[in-house]
């Protein structure tokens, strides 16, 4: 049986072949010949067959994940964690894509596809509503609380490009029993009011025939595959790693790993000892973590540990669920965005993703695109990210 990647490649190849035939006739200003119609239909049927196989494979995989989740809930792990992240992002972008299709249909109305070209369409933010999750979190975005924009517009209707947030910079609790009339002890709990700006996240599609606008089902596939998922992945990367160090001319996003004030655990003795030390170092500061983030290869190394070092039974017989028991019962989210050899533990409720406004979808058919009867899509959103309590996180070095 072909893999999902092979099926997607086959779909893309067959669809591209059909497009080449149609585009050639379109560029020559003529109708398709009967031979061209027959060849295009052959490619389209092959595309439909591959799509049907992919739909079946995806359905079977979803059922397998559902079974794996139920088994994990009772302490059994089938080791399917490596695919959770991409699946969750696909689910999120699909839900968003369906909302966008509704907006496109409203805009097109009775005037058809031409009403979509040359303007900007307000569409739902791709992260405005968290995906409903049953069971464990499966991606970094699942862990990050959303906050809607709180600023109000000025008399001219301007909102501005900045947002404010609080950062806890000190915490020293000195409460104790106090006799009548005695001065009360002071706890040092300090916050700073900080300001940052929203960043623009955007992506464009490759040029495509304008006639595709007449097929909303085709458009929704483009939105899901190229726009929604791409923006979600970019946000995850910036939330975790940021976009570089500040300079005189650059004002990058500060991700969790770049925010000063978080704790750090150096490697000691063994990987398990190091992870355990990090857990207790963080909880000793009265922080209650809610998740680990690890590279999938580091989780795999834990799963393959054996009682005798290189021999004997697996140390964690039930895989991820047994590992989580040792590491504090906190769920482990795997991500390729965190470097192998580094882990992160923290209370992700001490962060927030701020959505400035609805996203915008622009469809352009001007310039050289006009002469080729083509259009391009551009999806754009504006988001801010803040870490409200840096000390709620600890990075862990897993390399000796």
From TrEMBL:
It comes from Mycetocola manganoxydans. Pfam families: Phage_capsid. Residues 158-397 form the Phage capsid-like C-terminal domain. It is found in: Virion. This is Phage major capsid protein. Gene3D superfamilies: hypothetical protein PF0899 domain, Major capsid protein gp5. InterPro entries: Phage_capsid, Phage_capsid-like_C.
